[in-house]
Structure formats: structure tokens, C-alpha cells
Amino acid sequence: MGDANMCVCVFICLCVTSMQNNNIFNLCTTHQVVCINNINFQRKSVIGYVELTIFPTVVNLNRIKLSSKQCRIYRVRVNDLEAPFIYNDPTLEVCHHESKQRNLNYFSSAYTAAVGAVDPDAGNGELCIKVPSELWKQGDEMKVLKVYIEFSLDQPKGGLHFVVPDIEGNMAERGAHVFSFGYQNSTRFWFPCVDSYSELCTWKLEFTVDASMVAVSCGDLVETVYTHDMRKKTFHYVLPIPTAAPNISLAVGPFEILVDPYMHEVTHFCLPQLLPLLKHTMSYLHEIFEFYEEILTCRYPYSCFKTVFVDEAYVQVSSYASMSIFSTNLLHSAMIIDQTPVTRRCLAQALSQQFFGCFISRMSWSDEWVLKGISGYIYGLYLKKTFGVNEYRHWIKEELDKIVEYELKTGGVLLHPAFCGGKEKDNPTPHLHFSIKHPHTLSWEYYKMFQCKAHLVMRLIENRISMEFMLQVFNKLLSLASTASSQKYQSHMWSQMLLSTSGFLKSISNVSGKDIGPLIKQWVDQSGVVKFFGSFAFNRKRNVLELEIRQDYTSSGTQKYVGPIKVTVQELDGSFNHTLQIEENSLKHDIPCHSKSRRNKKKKIPLMNGEEVDMDLSAMDADSPLLWIRIDPDMSILRKVEFEQADFMWQYQLRYERDVVAQEEAISALEKFPTPASRLALTDILEQEQCFYKVRMQACFCLAKIANSMMSTWTGPPAMKSLFTRMFCCKSCPNIVKTNNFINFQSYFLQKTMPVAMALLRDMQNLCPKEVLNFILDLIKYNDNRKNKFSDNYYRAELIDALTNSLTPAINISNEVRTVDNLNSDVRLILEEITRFLNMEKLLPSYRNTITVSCLRAIRMLQKNGHIPSDPSLFKSYAQYGHFVDVRVAALEAVVDYTRVDRSSEELQWLLDMVQNDPSHYVRHKILSMLGKNPPFTKASESSLCNEALVDQLWKLMNSGTSHDWRLRCDAVNFYYTLFGLTRPSCLPLPELGLVLNLKEKKAVLNPTIKPEAGGIGGVGALDLCANGGIHTPISGFPSSEEEDIDMDTVHDSQAFIYHHLNMLERPMSGHCVGSSPVLLTSGKEPPLVEQTLLSMPATPLPAFIKEPSASKHGEHHHRHHHHDHKKKKKKHKHKHKHKHKHESKDKDKDKDRERERDRDRDAHAFTSSPASGRSLRSPSLSD
Amino acid sequence: FIGTSLPSHWNLQSGLRSGSGKTTTSPAENYYLARRRTLQVVVSSLLTECGFESAEKAAVESLTEMIQSYISEVGRSAKSYCEHTARSTPTLSDVVVTLIEMGFNVDTLPTYAKRSQRMVITAPPVTNSPVVPKALAAGQKRVHPPYIPSHLPDFPDPHTYIKTPTFREPVSDYQVLREKAASQRRDVERALTRFMAKTGETQSLFKDDITAFPLIAARPSSIPYLNALLPSELELQTLEETDSSEQDDQTDNENAPTGADKENSVLPPGGVVPAVKPSEETVIDNPYLRPVKKPKVRRKK
Fold first, then answer.
1. What is the pLDDT of residues A560-597, one digit of tens each?
2. Which of A24, A742, A1129, A1163 has the maximal Cβ count within 10 Å?
């Protein structure tokens, strides 16, 4: 690489630096016009222009940075003057050099840096426009700039998704449509903009589409005008409410239009032929509207609302300003039971995000949790109102269990990472293999958990300040925002529409007067959950309950809790709440009991809710008045509680505690007590119609488990059989099930679940009892839905699931090939049913093909258990594009499972090809996440599949193959992590000295096969990187550089220039490179010092360094010089190492040396993983 | 001749129909065959009279049939005329009217009857007219109540109008029915799917015997969501049926009642309809329903 190139590189770096720190402050977009005047479905291309009205807020604005990805930009004009521009997207290829490093640590930091380098939140962008010098003067006078950009998109891989079915007819007849999508701020994929949630502006949107199509977008449709040839229409939208670019969306297709009959300003769109479904699905949307408007005492902020249902949706629900895009698969007819609540939830979710997320946007990424939390919280209120308190509490428990499990597994979810301007050295989440600094580096699962936790924390705040205050806070935020939204930009009120953590907290303290600081500190600023272990003893003499609550706060994902905790004790005399203080060292808590004299009279026992019930107290311990104890019954701590109490206490809790959460806890606890008493308690609950149906469903599975544990002593018919017969079979002929009548949904769900649970029963031979199998087969045989007003597709699917559950491994007769002849007779019956079901699906498909899905699972289970030959070809055919997405996912799941069990590299390859080529983004994402959950091998296990080619392929996939889809890239990273871990994949041959880093890993130390002649690719790569290593992290306080004289006019189209830029991309890598290469081994203690210098610097500009291009060249020179040094040292080092190898006798010395290295390495690593690491690269030149 | 054939013309026809093709004959059939034979002789002699020397059997048959129909029609019509005038036995005038009505010139009849070359045919052999089989007497015939005149016909046999409830075991009936319905459906489904599998492409779960459990091959469709989301015609049909008819009660129906309440707790129904009724769609002002504007004539800017 020549010096000249270097120079350019550095130069741009400077430019970047100067832009970074002041983009946010030096310009503001106030209005943007987006005009797409041609959408070609055949070629899948889009042509249009945007015009941004920009308000410079500093004098002499000479560079404008905008976000733009994959758009081809034809020309840029600023106030009608042609403007030169450069385009650079470092995320296209994260690690540019063909380095053989292949370790994820390295990739992650490079990726984070790349994303950061174009992060619009920080004022960065891929597109850098040079303001023509004629206009500089204007900047002085603070005139607006109009930036006009013509662009086109050709076969976009992200941002816009074209669905073009391959059939006869014109595009409208074929149902071709296109819609925008993306994870977080991804609008830059389809038009240039400032792609940040915190940059608000008003919008004018114009879309010219075929006359048979409808273009749905944000804001009000002002008019629709034919083009002159009358073959096309132009839809003119105006969005007067300041909105961030990521909240802009578009959907174009031959949609059927349904104006909501209750609210005429709401319009629904669906694909052709689905209108009847749309009508039914949307018939209750107005209730959700009314609910939110009522609780928030605030009108829906936009003047209209649109819902669009599209095929191949990226996510089920995505919300944009005044419109939402849903998956078409949410539509259902009135005959479908199971989908109804799911769809209603999705609608409610979308609508809650309209208020918080679209109308009120976030100030920065670290404030995301507030918006997700609030929208999740009001969505929860809707659930409570619509589906009832039981459902709500059940959902909260589910969410809590999920987040607890995730945090304990991965080490914590941090809601509000404090980056402190990038100065903080420590990675706030060292346990994760990705950075949480940007939304685009997060793994999808983490983000889902993040939202879940945000909502739960919001609920904790509600517990603290009451719902009334909570709603007042929301109302206040909304009314401030709506006042601001009607103001002109110049009034500087728009920031009221952005929500930040501090603003939210201030609002809370203003409204409620309460200090929720500790709560925020515990759950928001800190990651981890609390893990309690509780046990108790009853002291008869003192009539005191001695409760011991211990905590585990050392294992990963946990934190220590100090503060109040509520304990509810149900005694004979009633239920009593106690608030205990969890303190540093107190484990034991004495709780006085009330019931001194007991059961002298037959008295009813009062419950928490005031109800008084008769109980059979014979099971109780005669000395103790305690019926049951609950710790933190209101779930006001994010915790996991493992509480020990006697089985009879759990049984009482199950029978008599009215809270569904308590009942569910009792059920899971009873699994450990397989006794007749538990059986009775569960059966009673199962029969009790007043009991919440989900509790009853859970009881089914628990009963099956208990029955299996009690196998030898079990009397009577198989568990649940007589119960099912009594509930659902004909009185006169108990072997025949009644004809279906699903009008009572509770019994419907129970009817579906019981066979599935029963099929889990096993006899002494560990087989499913013949009686049970025949029973299920009879259910299938006599199933009669002719008189039912609901579809039985889910019921039939679950009956197939029941068959699947009944399968047990085949008796393996010396590995013989599975043939039809040696098929077990029971299995033959099962297989016959499955075959018939699957074939009938072809003729009469069920809703969402639920039956096919179940059949595929069943077939895979048959294969896995060795009843039929294991063969993925059937699944592969069902996984093809063109099947319904649920079927595809089920088939792919089977292929993934096959890949793991049979260690098939062919299938793995097939899956990975699909990840790269499938038209559906959802399916691609799903494959990788399924592979991640059910990996063919892991970092802990050896496998023949683990080879260099696979490493290369996956590396390529995440490095450059997935640059169009943030989510997919993160999935790829996850999968890579699952397979190979954070460090160098073990299957790669050890590189020459790359193991300096690997010393951290014991493996490398144990295996120091150093090949002296291996022509250090890694080493060279590293050198290169360091050589390029420049300045890339924003350094606040630098004056904007005016002097760069690079001729941007000449380069805006040149490949070469992009190449330079790609070189720049290595800067990110360098951050890591420092850690991995020996540079720091020598200058180990330097960086902190440098950093200090730097920190003190901002006030004083560095004229010598910045102003003179030659100075930077000089600096660069130093870099290189420095490097040479290191190269030498490295060599020396290597030598030494080798030397030592030869002389085994110097073992002690060697160990010491290694230890030292390891220490250094650790230092270096800790340092590099900090956000500020890039800065250290400067150290040599500066200190020089 | 006419007189003898008249009362039995209905029997004649039915007898002929039932008797044809049978080798063994009952006395009643014999009776009709004899008459038919006579008719054939009549036809043959008439033919001879007209100068035919021979005739094909089929032609004779046809003519016989025609003459028989003609005579039958005359009889039927004559009977109608007679009944029309409230009599029960036809008279000559009835026959005459009938013949006139049928377009026959009655005046020529006496001359024709007295023609010289007519052949005289021997009367058919006397056979016993068939015995009307006694109807099975079931129960006692009811006698007329006093207010019904005795000339009115007797009551028919009681079994023809009295409802006789029969009792079968309903339990077993239901079970059998369900059993039958289930196996019938299963058979139909199996046959249909087998047929589809045989006629189309298949996939197999076994490598050794690809016919064992044939699966209709999965075929991707261009718009997969349509089939998956839209209810099938069968389901729509069912829906219509259940809308019109009540859920069947079967023998036990206790899982239906409280249903409506419980439904509310899981999925609330439509809720209160607001003041604006959906029917007033004509006044809806929605930008997507507005007509598309014509492009403006381009003005010079």
C-alpha cells in the first residue's frame, strides 16, 4: 500500500472525525420529500429521488452525512448545484482483509466499530456529501439547504421486499406486492435519509404505481392522480407530524381496501381474495383503539391509521407512523379459535407502538427500553382488560420465567447501558459475544428478551408508584409531544417528541413525587436477575415461622437484591402478608403466626380474597398452622424462587389458592412429589370448571409425569382417561367421543391438551400403554366436525401430536435397515393415520396447514426413533419455497434435526445455501436460529462437520454475506458462536503467531505447535491492520477540519475510491488488532496514559496534527515505523518461544513467561474491548 | 270383444309387462297371454283380409301392440265419460262418444262390421279370469261411523293409516351410526387419497417398498397463503349448515349451556356498536375511496 493511499485514508478519517462530533448539532433535517416514481415488479427495481430540507446550525457547514445503503445514487444537488459525494459502507464487509484470524471476538469488535462508524445516531452516515463552496456563505446566514438526491434500487436484498408470485397474468392479478421492512432503523436501505430515531422531520411522500395497485404509506393521503397516460397513479401523502425516518414505510400492491366500519379514518388492506378474512379479523380493532385512548386520556396522535397485511413478512408486526404492516398469516375466519387471541394480541401490540415508538420516538439507543417498556406495559393493560386478570398474570409469569431463564443462561440483559461518551473502559456486558452498543449488533433473541424485560421493569415501576400515576406520566408525555408536534421546527419544541430515560424518570418524579432511583439502578442500569432459595421451619414453642431466604448472586446472570420482599403466609386463621427486608447478612426471618389453637372447631378457612372455604385438614402437620407460604407473590422482583415446602402444602396451594400464578407454581412443584395425594389434587383441579384453563392444561402434563413416576403403584385406568371420557365422550358409548362442539373454549382447550398429555404416559416397558394409544386412535377415528361451527384443524393437529408423543424408540435389532415388513404393528397404525392426514391435507388443506405441520413432526419423530428409515428428502421437498411458511419451518426444523443426528454435511450445506438464497427473509432467519438452538455440533463437542471450509463459509456469511439484513447477520454471528465459541475455531490449523492471543485459551497453550515456515498470514494481516489503524472513534471537541483538499469531485463514482474507503474499514479491526498483535505487549502500559492525554485535549485543538495533512502523514509514518519495530520484536519473541520449546528444561521460566504474556494479553484484551479502544491507535504518534 | 276387454285393461297391461321374459307363467299371466294371442290372430286375419300373404313377426307384434293400445284407450276413455256422468258402468253412448272423440267415424262401423269378406275368428279359449289375490288383512277394518253413508268406500286397512311406533334400542343405534359414519368417512378418505396417490406423483417413507405408505407429493404453489388461510369449501358448507340447524343434541348435551358466558371471558364479542352504523357506507369519506383525479393539464411554469 502506497503512501499516497495512506494519506487519503487518514485524510478521510479526519473528515469522518470532524463530521462525527457535530453532525447532530450542526444540521437538522426539517422536512423530507420522498418520491418514488417507478416501481418495477418484473425487475424488482425502484427509481426515485429524495429532497431533504436541512437547517445548518453552525456556520460553514461543508459536509453533510446521510444514511444510505444499497441505493445507487445518480446525482446529488444542493440548492440546485451539483454536489460531489462519496459513498462508503464499512458494514458491507466487516473484516476486509482475508485474515485467517476467524475468531469471533475479533469480528464482534470490528463489526461494532463498523456499525458505529456509520451510526446515524452519532451523526454518521454512509453517504458523505460535500456542500458546494458557493453555498458556504449561505451557511453563515443559516439559510436552509435543499439536498436533492436521485437514486435507484435494483433487486434490493434488504429494506424493500418484493413478493412476485410466479403465475400467469399481470402483476395485480398475480398478487405481486412490495413492502418496506427492517430491523430497527433500516430505512436507509430504500432511500437516503438521516436514519435515526432521534432526527424528526415532516414528510411529503409520493409514489407512482400501476393503476391497478395501491400505495400505502405514512401520513394522510392527500390525493391520488393519474399520470398522463392514465396507466399509473400517483399517491400523494403528507405527514405533518415530525417523524423519524425509521418510522417511514411503504406497501404497494393490488390490495383490497376495507374502511373500518367503526372508524372511518382507519383503513385496512389485504391481498386479493382475503377480504372476508380481513373483515372478520378487523372487526374488533376499534375496541383496542378505544381502550388505549381511554387509559391514556389522549386521542390517537395521527389523523388516520392503516393496516396492511402482506405475504412473506419480516416480522409478524411492525409499526410505523400511522400505519402498521402485518403478516398476512394473521388473518383468520370466524371458524378459527386458536389464532384469534394471537391476532388480537398482535393488533394490540401494533397499536400500542403507535403511541410509544412511532409518535414518541427515542432520544438514543440506550433509551429504547423506555419506549419498549411503555408500549409493552399498556399492551399488558389491554390484555388484562380483554383476556382477564388470570390470563394477564399467567402472561406475566411466563415473561418473568422467560427472562429469568435467559439471563441465567447468557449472563444478563442490560436495559440502559451507560456508555458515558465512550470513555468507559469496561464492556458493560462482557458475558455476551456481541456488543449492545448498537441495535444492529444485538442478537435477535437478546432483543426479544430486552423488550420482555423492559416491560416487566415498567410493571415494577407501576407497582412502586401506582397505575394511576403511571398513566398520568404517559398522558403527560403524550400531551407534551402532541403540543410539540403541531409547532414549527423553528420553535425547537420537537425534542419533546423524543423520550429519554432521564426525561421519563423526571416525569415520574414530578408526577408521583416518588424516588424510583434505586429501582432503576437495580433493574435498568444493571443486568441480571435475583435467585432466591427459600426454606422454612415452624417453631412450635414460639409459634413463629422461621423463614430462611438465601440468594445466589455469584453465578452468571444474577445480581444481589437488597430491599423489601413480600411473603404471604396462609394459615388456618387466614392469609397474612408480611414485608421482610432482605439485607446484606440476614438470612433468617421470624414471622409470628396467628393460629395458636387449631382445628378445635370445624371452621371455614378465610383466603386472601375474602372467600371462606372448607378444607380437609387431615393431610396437615398436626403441630403447624401453616397451609402454604408464598415468596414475592406479586412478582415485584425479577427473580427466580426455589422454595421448599412439604408436598401437602403445595397441594393445598394448588387447590385453594386463587391466584393462577400460585397454582402454576404448585403444579410445577408437585412434579417432585409423585403420591396419590398429588394425583388427587391434580385430578380435582382438572375437573374444576372454575379453574383457569391454562392451569388445568398444565395440570394434565404434571399428572402424566406423576403417573409415570408412580407406575408401579398406579391403580385404575390410565391417568386422565376416565376424566376425558366423562367430559367429552358419549354417555351411552364411552369409547366414542361426542361430535365436536367447541362453543366452550375452555373445554375445547382441555379437550385438545388431554390426549397430548396422556400420550406421554409409559408403562413398565417404557412404552405408551396400548390402551392409551387405542384411545387416541379412536378419538381420531370418531372425530366428527360436521355439526361444529368452528374448525377442528388445531384439534386434529394436536391429536397427531399426541400420536407423536406416544412414540418410543424402536427395539433396535442389530442395526438392520428399517423396512415395511418389520414395522411394529402399533407404529403401522400410527403411520397409517399420518399418511391419511397428510394426503387429505393436499385435497382439503387446513387453516395454516396445521395438520401438515404436525404430520411432518410426527414423521421426523418416527425416523428419529428408528421406526422408519431416517431420510431428509421428504422434509426437503416440504421446505421448498412455495409452501406455506409454517410448513416450511416445520420441515426445516426436521432437516436441522436430521443434520445434527446424522451429522450430515450435505444437509448442513443445503441449509446454509438456503440461508443465503431463499427469497423469504423470515425463513432465512428461522433456519439460522433453529441451527443455533439445535446445532449440528458445539464448541464443546468434536465433530467431523467442523472443518475449515465450514468456518470459511460461515465467516463469509457473517462478514459480507448478510450485510443487507442486520437480523440475519446477528443470527449468523450467534450460530458461529454456538459452533466455535469466541476464539479461533479449534478445527483451524494453528496460525503462526496468532496464538499470542490464543494464549488466553488454555487449549492453545497446551498445544503450541508452532510452524516456523508457515508464512505468517495472520501475522501479516495483523500488521497491515495496524498500519492502517487510524483514528476512527469520535473524539468530541475536535474542530471541524476545513483544510482537507481531497478532490472529492473527481471521485464520487470511482471504484477506487470505494476501495480506499473499504480500507478505512480496517480501522475498526485495528481496535482488536492491537489486542491480538504484539504491539501492546511492548507498549503495554502506554494506552491509559495516552487516553488521559486525549481526554484532557478536547479544549485545546491540535493544530499541528489536524491542520497539516503532512502532519498526519507524519503520524502515519510513525505508525509504520512503530510497526516495524514490533515486527522485529515479534520475530524475536517467536524465536524465543521456539527456543524454549527446544529446551524443555527451562520449564519454569517458560511458564512464567507465559503467565506474563497471558496477563498482558488480558490487559490488552480488556482494553481493546472498550469502546474507546480505537483511540489508542494514535498513541504512538501522539506520544512520539 | 270390446265389452270383455274393458274391465281388465289395466290388468292386461301390467300383466303383460310383468309377464314378459318369464318362462314360467301364473294363471293370471296365462289369461293375458291368451288374449294377446287372440289379438294377434285378429291382426293376422285383418292383414290377410287386406291381401297380405305374410308378415314379419315384428310387424305383427307392433300392430298387435297398436291395436291393443287403441282398444285400451277406448276402454279408458269410455270409462271416464261414464264416470263423468256419475255412472259406474259404461254404456254404448259412452263408447260412441269416445270413438268420436278419437276421430273415428262411427257411421262407417256398422257397414264395416257387415262386410262380406270378413273372417270369423274363434273365440278365445275360456280361461279363468285371474283371481285377485287377497290383500293381506292386517287388523280389523273399521266400520263406518253412523254419519258416513254406507255407499261410501270402506275404510282401508288400518296399517295404511295408523302410525305404529316401533322401538329400537337408541343407544346401540347411535353407536352403530357413529361407527358407520366414521368408517365410511375413513374408507372414502382412504380410497380418495390412494387414488390420488396412484394417479399422481408420490413420495415414500420407505426405500424398500415405495408403495407401502404412499404420500401425495408436496407441490409448491405460487400463492401458498391462499390455500392455507381461506376456509375450504367443505368448511364453508359446514358453517352454513350449522348456522341453519342447531347443534345436534346427541344423547347428552351438557357441554353446551354456559358456553356463551365463557366465550366472553376468552374472546369478547363485537361489543357495543357505536352511533355510526356500518350500513351508512355511502357517507364514508375515506381518501382511499375517493375517485382518482385526472392529471392536470400541464401549465407552463
1. 999 999 999 998 888 999 999 988 776 889 999 886 65
2. A742
Contacting B residues, span 254-293, partner chain A, CB-CB under 8 Å:
255-256, 258-260, 262-263, 265-268, 270-271, 273-274, 276, 278, 281, 284-290, 292-293
Instruction: Compute the half-sphere exposure of residue B298: CA atoms within 13 Å on the CB side of its CA.
Output: 5
SS3 A950: helix
**Could you read off the pLDDT of A349-388 as tens digits, one per residue?**
999 999 999 999 999 999 999 999 999 999 999 999 999 9
Reported ipTM: 0.76
Q: Per this entry, what is the length of chain B?
A: 301
> Residue A58 is placed in which grid cell?
453552525
- pLDDT tens for A299-308 read 999 999 999 9
User: Is A1143:A1067 a contact under the CB 8 Å cutoff?
Assistant: no
Residue A548 burial (CB count, 10 A): 14
Which pLDDT value is given to residue A1180?
35
The string of pLDDT tens digits covering residues B36-60 is 888 898 899 889 888 898 989 999 9
CA distance B206 to chain A (A): 6
> Are A274 and B266 a contacting pair at CB < 8 A?
no
Mean pLDDT of A1157-1179: 40
Rounded mean pLDDT of A886-894?
Answer: 96
Q: What is the pLDDT of residue B124?
A: 67
B-chain residues near A739 (CB < 8 A)? 248, 250
Which residues from B are below 8 Å from A874, CB to CB?
203, 205, 215, 218
Q: Does the beta-carbon distance from B178 to A784 stay under 8 Å?
A: yes
Alpha-carbon distance values, A80 to A58, A83, A131, A542, B74 (Å): 21, 9, 11, 89, 109
CB contact under 8 A, B231 and A847: yes
Q: For A777-888, list the strands marked E by DSSP.
A: none
Taking contacts as CB-CB distances below 8 angstroms, the residues of chain A near B284 are 259, 264
Using pLDDT thresholds of 50, 70 and 90, give the confidence band for residue A887. very high
Range from A221-225, A420-424, B58-62, B212-216 carrying the lowest mean pLDDT? A420-424
Chain B closest CA to A388's CA: distance in Å?
7
pLDDT of residue A492: 78
- Count other C-beta atoms under 10 Å from residue B108's C-beta: 9
Which pTM value belongs to this model? 0.75
Q: Compare CB distances from A264 to B206, B273, B285 and report the shortest one's residue.
A: B285
Q: Which three cell numbers stand for residue A148?
A: 436533492
Distance (Å) of CA A996 to CA A107, A999, A1160, A1174 = 17, 5, 10, 20
Long-range pairs of A179-182 with CB within 8 A, sequence gap ≥ 24: A179/A249, A179/A250, A179/A251, A179/A252, A179/A253, A179/A308, A179/A310, A179/A313, A179/A325, A180/A248, A180/A249, A180/A250, A180/A251, A180/A325, A181/A313, A181/A314, A181/A315, A181/A318, A181/A325, A181/A921, A182/A158, A182/A246, A182/A314, A182/A966
Residue contact A736–B223, C-beta within 8 A: no
Q: Which residues contact B50 (CB under 8 A, 6 or more apart)?
A: none
* Residue of B176, B190, B222, B235 to mutate for A, most A C-beta atoms under 10 A: B235
Look-up: residue for cell 388443506?
A845
Q: Which strands form A639-643's sheet, in the order they lie side by side? A: A588-592, A544-551, A530-539, A639-643
Is residue B143 very low, low, confident or very high in pLDDT (cuts 50, 70, 90)? Answer: confident
How much is the mean pLDDT over chain A?
A: 81
Angstrom distances, CA of residue A994 to CA of A19, A607, A1012, A1149, A1155: 35, 67, 12, 22, 17
Cross-chain Cβ contact B292/A847 below 8 Å: no
Is the minimum CB–CB distance between B166 and chain A shorter than 8 Å?
A: no
Chain B nearest-CA distance from A578, in A, is: 33
